[in-house]
Automatic annotation (TrEMBL):
It is a multi-pass membrane protein. It comes from the Eukaryota. Electrogenic proton-coupled amino-acid transporter that transports oligopeptides of 2 to 4 amino acids with a preference for dipeptides. Transports neutral and monovalently charged peptides with a proton to peptide stoichiometry of 1:1 or 2:1. Primarily responsible for the absorption of dietary di- and tripeptides from the small intestinal lumen. Mediates transepithelial transport of muramyl and N-formylated bacterial dipeptides contributing to recognition of pathogenic bacteria by the mucosal immune system. One of its GO terms (cellular component) is apical plasma membrane. It catalyses: glycyl-L-aspartate(out) + 2 H(+)(out) = glycyl-L-aspartate(in) + 2 H(+)(in); glycylglycyl-L-isoleucine(out) + H(+)(out) = glycylglycyl-L-isoleucine(in) + H(+)(in); glycyl-L-glutamine(out) + H(+)(out) = glycyl-L-glutamine(in) + H(+)(in); L-phenylalanyl-L-leucine(out) + H(+)(out) = L-phenylalanyl-L-leucine(in) + H(+)(in). It comes from Lates calcarifer. This is Solute carrier family 15 member 1. The chain crosses the membrane at residues 19-37, 44-61, 67-88, 100-122, 134-155, 176-196, 216-239, 288-306, 341-359, 371-392, 542-562, 574-594, 606-627. InterPro entries: MFS_trans_sf (IPR036259), POT_fam (IPR000109), PTR2_symporter_CS (IPR018456). PANTHER family: OLIGOPEPTIDE TRANSPORTER-RELATED. Keywords: Cell membrane, Glycoprotein, Membrane, Peptide transport, Protein transport, Symport, Transmembrane, Transmembrane helix, Transport. The lineage of its organism: Eukaryota, Metazoa, Chordata, Craniata, Vertebrata. Residues 641-690 are annotated as: Disordered.
Length: 690
């Protein structure tokens, strides 16, 4: 271990462990490799669990779609709100290292509890595959999710800030690269987990009955979280650990409150103005704390327009598109993996090629300018999404509006029939029908039985049930690919009907009166295409994903670095939490705007988001133009040098004040004693006269 005694000014209290530089590899402290691996494992754990959470709510806990979605979004919002709590604990009480350790234990415990809650055999006393006490599983799940939200949210701001603490002031370039590598590890973990965890869920497991393996899907992320904790602890001896500096958040809030109250009390024009409104706290608080509060408020003010950057609703768009890439079939929810893949590609390109080229062109591409460009890219991405949506809408069937109705007739005869509905007359052709667009890119299939006896239809593991004569089955969602339908009667005869499906189509299969079991049974089944399969290819989403990812790389990586570099030493985690809070607020804004706007067309919603982003981009650019970059370390060092002199002056003033008070009291006592003696003399004279 090599310890460099840096030239810190007198009066700035820095622990020895804070100024020790450990062995490095390629100019980077070895300790950051433990931090990056820890972040990779933690993000794998979080995103892996989250990838199957809605399905767990819907198919294991048996919640309806709306309730499952609400709980899911509540959980995600909580994960981005708890960083404030973690930051306060880290900067004020335990320090970043201990906060990460303790909350990681809470996090891992929550993951384990969630995995246990998914074991259906625990309460399946009658061994029928369905838990007998669903309330127990729900309660266990909620406890697990609350612990996960506290853990993942609490350590989020600490890990990034703790990584930044490993670098000295002379390693600004390495620190900047670290935040890029840190962001890469986040997305690498996210990418692998969102691919692997759904595969684990698709396996079947169980003691008494075989079910979708949610315990495995949650258990592997839990194991990764334990690995993340172990890796972080192993690097303990190599970390630079900054000690917490008291309850800083309480001090900051009281300082701001006093400044506001003091300014209000001295609002009259007779009092001279001060350079900054926080300077009104000088009567009670030292100038170092006031300077640190000014730094934080400057950055937080810049954060105000940032939440609009976060959040996109493109997975729903993918459900109306064709995911057949030839050698690869992409499901709608898998299309979002394009984002982390592009991040893994673009981050090194930006750091190694784009930024150095801009620097060689002698362009001053400051962090705030980068973030502005990132927001502009995001606006362009939503414009691209709107253009794709317009093309998709042209392929969708026209459904009745809110003031129109729709009547469906199915002609079971082999000839056209004349139909009259009010003033409307038309010919009803054979076998026509229409229905709503299926969800998740699946194909909505139903059967109409015109055969003389009841039949049962199954496809894969799905059962249409017994369909009586002249009756319609329920809809079954059949995924893309080849499907084999088995049609059986009560006598045990079987007809096999094969069909290849694309994405998002709807068919009604009519079993005609002439249907007969046998080798040619397929001739008695008439398919009616209600909704055509998706024809716009998912590849058209790649440009918008490229734009949003380029914007995210420029915006988010820079934002992490900017938040750290502009934060005072005792509030690094707090500003990281403020940055993460913009993500939570952004997701809430997306939900509110989407619900409140009630726009009839999806493309119009995308244009709305693009317009809001452009507006916010302009506002942010103006705010950034007036922002002055600072070096918190230098400012703190300057005030630390001044602090002893100011304290000495205050001490001298207090001593002088005490001396004057004592002198005043002494004069009062002497005057009192002289008056007493003169009155005694008068009494003596009076007595002698008598």
């Amino acid at each position: 271990m090599y310890c460099l005694l840096l030239g810190y000014p007198t009066g700035l209290h820095v622990k020895k462990e804070q100024i020790c530089s450990h062995a490095t590899v390629c100019g980077y402290p070895i300790s950051i490799f433990f931090i990056v691996v820890n972040e990779f494992c933690e993000r794998f754990s979080y995103y892996g669990m989250r990838a199957v959470l809605v399905l767990y709510f819907k198919y294991f806990l048996r919640w309806d779609d709306d309730f499952a979605t609400t709980i899911y979004h509540t959980f995600v919002a909580l994960c981005y709100l708890t960083p404030i709590l973690g930051a306060i604990v880290a900067d004020s009480w335990l320090g970043k290292f201990k906060t990460i350790i303790y909350l990681s234990i809470v996090y891992a415990l929550g993951q384990v509890i969630l995995a246990v809650s998914a074991i259906h055999d625990i309460t399946d006393a009658n061994k029928d595959g369905t838990p007998d006490n669903m309330g127990f599983h729900v309660a266990l799940s909620m406890v697990g999710l609350i612990l996960i939200a506290l853990g993942t949210g609490g350590i989020k701001p600490c890990v990034a800030a703790f990584g930044g603490d490993q670098f000295g002031d002379h390693q600004e370039k390495q620190r900047s690269t670290f935040f890029s590598i840190f962001y890469l590890s986040i997305n690498a973990g996210s990418l692998l987990s969102t691919v692997i965890t759904p595969i684990l869920r698709a396996q079947e497991c169980g003691i008494h009955t075989q079910q979708k393996c949610y315990p495995l899907a949650f258990g592997v992320p839990a194991a990764l979280m334990v690995v993340a904790l172990i890796v972080f602890i192993v690097g303990s001896g190599m970390y630079n650990k900054t000690a917490p500096q008291g309850n800083i958040m309480v001090k900051v809030c009281r300082c701001i409150g006093f400044a506001i109250k003091n300014r209000f009390r001295h609002r009259s024009s007779q009092y001279p103005k001060r350079a900054h409104w926080m300077d009104w706290a000088e009567e009670k608080y030292d100038k170092l704390l006031i300077a640190q509060v000014k730094m934080v408020l400057k950055v937080l003010f810049l954060y105000i327009p940032l939440p609009m950057f976060w959040g996109s609703r493109w997975t729903l768009q993918a459900t109306t598109m064709n995911g057949d890439f030839g050698i690869l079939i992409i499901q709608p929810d898998q299309m979002q993996t394009v984002n982390p893949i592009l991040i893994l590609i673009l981050v090194p390109i930006m750091d190694s090629i784009i930024y150095p080229l801009i620097a060689k062109c002698k362009l001053n591409f400051t962090p705030l300018k980068r973030m502005t460009v990132g927001m502009f890219f995001a606006a362009l991405a939503f414009v691209a999404a709107a253009l794709v949506q317009i093309q998709i809408d042209q392929t969708l069937p026209k459904f009745p509006s809110s003031n129109e109705g729709q009547a469906k007739f199915i002609n079971m005869m082999n000839k056209s029939l004349p139909i009259k509905a009010g003033a409307n007359q038309f010919m009803l052709e054979s076998f026509t029908d229409i229905t709503s667009k299926p969800e998740q890119g699946a194909n909505a299939i139903r059967f109409l039985n015109g055969f003389a006896s009841t039949v049962n239809v199954t496809v894969r593991n799905e059962d249409f049930g017994d369909i009586v004569t002249n009756n319609m089955s329920k809809y079954i969602a059949v995924p893309q690919g080849n499907a084999e339908f088995l049609i059986r009667n009560n006598a045990g005869q079987v007809c096999v009907y094969n069909q290849k499906f694309g994405f998002g189509s709807s068919y009604t299969y009519i079993i005609t009166p002439t249907f007969a079991f046998g080798p040619n049974c397929q001739e008695g089944i008439r398919p009616v295409l209600d909704i055509r399969p998706n024809s716009i290819h998912m590849a058209w989403q790649i440009p918008q994903y490229f734009l949003i990812t380029a914007g995210e790389v420029v915006f988010s990586v820079t934002g992490l670095e900017f938040s750290y570099s502009q934060a005072p030493s005792n509030m690094k985690s707090v500003l990281q939490a403020g940055w993460l809070l913009t993500v939570a607020v952004g997701n809430i804004i997306v939900l509110i705007v989407a619900e409140a706007a009630t726009l009839p067309d999806q493309w119009a919603e995308y244009i709305l988001f693009a317009s809001l982003l452009v507006l916010v981009c302009i506002i942010f650019a103006i705010m950034a133009y007036f922002y002055t970059y600072i070096d918190p370390t230098k400012i703190e060092a300057q005030f630390a040098q001044k602090e002893p002199d100011e304290k000495q002056k205050r001490k001298s003033l207090e001593m002088a004040r005490k001396d004057s008070v004592e002198h005043y009291k002494g004069d009062r006592r002497s005057s009192d004693s002289s008056s007493d003696s003169s009155s005694d003399e008068d009494d003596v004279i009076q007595q002698s006269k008598m």
